[in-house]
Amino acid sequence: MLEPGRTIGILGVGQLGRMLASAAAKLGFKVAVYGPEVEKSPAGQFATIRVDGAYEDAAAVEAFARGCDVVTYEFENVPASTAAAVTKAGVELRPNARALEASQERVREKNLFRKLKIGTVDFWPIADARDLAKALPKAGPSILKTCRFGYDGKGQARLQGDEDPEAVLAELGGGPWILEAMARFEREVSLVAARSVHGEIAYFDLCENQHKHGILARSVIPAEASASVKEQAREAVRKVLEHLDYIGVLTVEFFDCDGTLLANEMAPRVHNSGHHTLEACSVSQFEQQIRAVAGWPLRDAETVRPMEMLNLIGEEIEAWDELAADPEVDLTLYGKREARPGRKMGHAVRPWRK
Amino acid sequence: MLEPGRTIGILGVGQLGRMLASAAAKLGFKVAVYGPEVEKSPAGQFATIRVDGAYEDAAAVEAFARGCDVVTYEFENVPASTAAAVTKAGVELRPNARALEASQERVREKNLFRKLKIGTVDFWPIADARDLAKALPKAGPSILKTCRFGYDGKGQARLQGDEDPEAVLAELGGGPWILEAMARFEREVSLVAARSVHGEIAYFDLCENQHKHGILARSVIPAEASASVKEQAREAVRKVLEHLDYIGVLTVEFFDCDGTLLANEMAPRVHNSGHHTLEACSVSQFEQQIRAVAGWPLRDAETVRPMEMLNLIGEEIEAWDELAADPEVDLTLYGKREARPGRKMGHAVRPWRK
Description:
The structure is a homodimer of 354-residue chains.
Chain A: E1 7-11, H1 15-26, E2 30-35, E3 49-52, H2 58-66, E4 70-73, H3 80-88, H4 97-103, H5 106-115, E5 123-126, H6 129-139, E6 142-146, E7 156-159, H7 165-172, E8 177-181, E9 187-195, E10 201-203, E11 207-212, E12 215-221, H8 227-243, E13 248-257, E14 260-267, H9 277-280, H10 285-293, E15 307-313, H11 320-325, E16 330-333, E17 344-351
Parallel strand pairs in A: 1-2, 1-4, 2-3
Antiparallel strand pairs in A: 5-8, 6-7, 6-8, 9-10, 9-11, 9-13, 11-12, 12-15, 13-14, 15-17, 16-17
Helix pairs in contact in A: 1-10, 2-3
């Protein structure tokens, strides 16, 4: 168990890092944050130590890691060389580099699901227009995604099956790609869970999520779900956690197709659909992550008060004063200066009644 | 309403400042902390801006305040000259200087209670041994306290009434003093409440407190109490808040003498007996304080889950690993390096069942 007073390093400077910093503060740790423009960043504003640098600068990351007792991250696009730099400094990266590799490339991610016998949609790796021309007729209505660096609906295109492969790839850019059959799902759910250094797993309740323009808009904890659906989700998450010898919080998003779950994607970190664990649960996803990476035991992640969370995207933040005045709303704002379209600026949590 | 992204200044570097910083982070503010050895202090470790300086250095405080949009404090012994320096910088101090004056000197505090017709114990201002010689026979079993700078039982002596006045004052030191008749109380309770810029008041539930060696050891929210006791506490707190045109969180501690409350002392700030509002209530005392000083509306301060809080004093912190492993315990550690005797190192909160 890492002693209070030790330093937890975080790669990444956004709102997840900010909320992780508060959780680390609660448990008596110091927090060092690494990333570009760290000083004015959401996480940097509340870090004990701020180190400005590029994620690709292995030497700088190695020096940063030497000042930490353990290192974690708040986004999955940490380059492999960066993960290696932490290890080179003699410091543990939690979750480990395998978790990063598995989740930052969509084909690898889907192959892992398949290998672990976790249901997923049909998919085709796409290296060029020839691959796409072959796959499209089989796939029919489908989604073409870049294998890397897509998030919040970016790097995606919906296809009917009759498009011109060359034109589609040129427009989307940034290959290689993956073509995914469109799931006929009723709803989307996600499961956030943590695994400790001793292999103990604590699951939050399933969340039901609604997206708008590819970005999470609303999430409810707990999702209404049958015992079978809950069990499928836990089973899938458990398999991934154990296969990767994972330490920390993992999130898997699923399509719920009439009671059968298909894994859509996973994130090796605290997740937007788990923000309301702070208000709803006996412990938050942020504290579980700090506990796990610090080698502490996890807490039970019981839902005490059902809650819904609404993301505040872009100019939706302009209603902050109305939300602040709503007696039902628990408001969290991320300290970002510019409300660019599609940018997550904060979230509002309120009690959820059926 | 102060806009998110603005800077809230805090005078004081301890655990209260640390928890206030987390609450400010949640609401999208920056936090500037001022005090001695700020860099490694509990609050400084998680502040956006850290300014090292003495509380008596009016010029430095004025410069600090110029960088803030509003200034608050986490301890009541802020010198009057320091409060004036904030005002001189053209920045609002919340709660105001009158709240500081009223609560940092025990005779003034008791006189205010008396003036507002809030029940309190009999008391005698003591300037010298002659005063004490006159008061002691009237008081009988009593407590002699320094008027300023006492906390956690420091600067106090219990008297039977037959002591030698000269010797007692020489031993206690640091006059002037106040002699307080010993209340025959059943228990101690406290009420934490906040008042907004618009005069709106939100009360937390009454807490029941147990002290050990003059230091708070345990607090339960909500205290079991009759409607009359609850009403007496609210009425007392309301009178003080309104009389002082107070903005922020105020705490009043009472002796419960068989259903009659006597005000013991007040603190113009978030309070140790309100820490478990974070786990127990729909909003924490820390968020209420940030909301109030930022000119935001307050939230309802309803108890959602009854909780007890145990302070971790001095070497009690050595059991941190057992507490971290207790599935019922919500642990908060303050990031202090040295566990000196009597020093508050953290607290443990757990569900309270009768």
